[in-house]
Structure prediction request, 630 residues.
Amino acid sequence: MKEVKQPDRKRIFYFYGIALAMLFLANMLLPSLIAPRTQSVTYNEFVTMAEQGKITEAEIQSSENRIVFKVDTQTEDTQNVMQKQQVYVTALVDDPDLVERLLDANVNFTQIWPSTPSPILTALLPLVVIIGLGVWMTHSMQKKMGSGAMSFGKSNAKIYVASETGIHFSDVQGEDEAKELLTEIVDFLHNPQRYADIGAHIPKGALLVGPPGTGKTLLAKAVAGEANVPFFSISGSEFVEMFVGMGAAKVRDLFKQANEKAPCIVFIDEIDTIGKKREGSGGMGGNDEREQTLNQLLTEMDGFDGSKGVVILAATNRPESLDPALLRPGRFDRRVPVELPDLIGREAILRVHAKKVKCEPGLDFNAIARMAAGASGAELANMVNEAALRAVRAGRDKISQSDLEESVEVVIAGYQKKNKILSNKEKLIVAYHEIGHALVAALQSHSAPVTKITIIPRTSGALGYTMQVDQEEHNLMSREELENKIATLTGGRVAEELALHSVTTGASNDIEQATRLARALISRYGMSDTFGMVAFEQVHNAYLGGDASMACADQTAAEIDRMVVTLVRRQYDKAKQLLSENMDKLHALSKHLYDHETITGDEFMKLLEQPKLELSTTEADDPSSQPEQA
Ligand code: ADP
Ligand code: MG
Ligand code: ZN
Prediction:
């Protein structure tokens, strides 16, 4: 997409500022630089030189009160004779014989100074050059940003020229519902008459809501690409960055231009920056500016005639913080959810981005998509790029399956920390910990299968991790599945305890997750027998992590805390039970992981299913005995 943007004003200002400073300096230094090296002499010397016939040319500068004259000097170099001219200057003395002297000495003399431009010109010329340069820069900048440059007044709105966007609905994958809703808008922009004939009101605005990185901005650009109409885009933060009073002016300006260019699309990205709920009284001046901008936006949205073909798109990832006035019918009355992609969507997004890079034939994108559960479109795009970078690092010219697999792990868990050395004792603890997770998961029925276990530390701080990948997409979780998940989370700590008889801080993240799950089960999902279907938690910013706050009586909160403790303990006991019944497997698998650092899900399952075999071979140096020695 080529975007035609007003040239960056700040840069022009800088340019002019620097140019002026240079001009100032040049004016001070220039005369001495331009003028040939001159030597001043007394009038006597001048007369002597004239009499000796040394002077070839002279210029009588009456205005400067001086005579500038040239004298031929011959310097004998080792190789050749050099003809040189030395320029002298002397004060102009009121000498009535001057002309005679010069004539006698056969000097070419004149009273004009042809090679020196007038002082005004000397001062103006650089200025002209600088202004010219500035204009040229502006032009070339505009050219870089797209031909047919149009620059706009106060708003920094960019125009995306539709024919040059290159972004189409086919570039956005896994958001079929959103695309469907937006297709209608595109269709309206193509045939406004058809809608007018039947008397339908096309929504004035559509609000794209969803977590970051799900393709909201991309979708808006795709709409422009499909609709073939001018596309004004401005980011909410651009409204507020300017001086007081500019925000409202920008909004006015933006809509004025949009009206002139209709049919067109106005896209306000990150609208929450200006569209936040207005405060009751707003005593402090701080929010005034934003409120003015928002008011102006509301006014403009009401003011323009929708049938003209101006459609307003906006995107946000905190819809709940928007001022209700914005969401009223007649403004952003269409809400387009842009959610995290599902399994099929993830695969499609991976394929779209894989088209832009060279891949080995027959890559299993479905497997990658399954590994990358919960990843956003932006993360998936990043994974493909990570894989490409990895292939280059390895000196290959195509992306392989393992590049993609590794890049999923990079995005999930960070890079491998090759130089982080774990002591043998720590390595063993981590091995037991991870096998504990994996075993508990494998020994329960409703758990996602283990696909990989590794004890290679990651930059995220994880010393190891167990990856579980569901065969298919999970949208619902039963109570049993939630409980099993809690049990699996406790498995790491349980294994440390059972095998090594000590506990470490390695389980802190597990503990956090288990607690959160248990709390959600009771106070959000209504799965406790005591409270039933009552929600005590309020989730804020569902699209941005979803931090929750409790909304209940203190007594209830205490009760919930107690229930959380009981729930986690029950699952912990279950995990302990499962692992102590399978101590042989725990030892054998941990030893195997300790030796190999990474094992795949298949290996894990195979080892799990061949009882005793592994154990007998490792009995001699049972790893569980090591830490006690260390
Ligand atoms: P948002 O505006 O929702 O935060 P963006 O539209 O800026 O997300 O997405 C960032 C990048 O991630 C896009 O440029 C694109 O490369 C990739 N991406 C995100 N979602 C998708 C998708 N649904 N299909 C294809 N690529 C996507
Ligand atoms: Mg965006
Ligand atoms: Zn753990």
Summary: The pocket of magnesium ion (ligand 2) is lined by residues 216-217, 269, 315 (CB under 6 Å). Residues 72 and 133 are 41 Å apart (CA to CA). The radius of gyration is 39 Å.
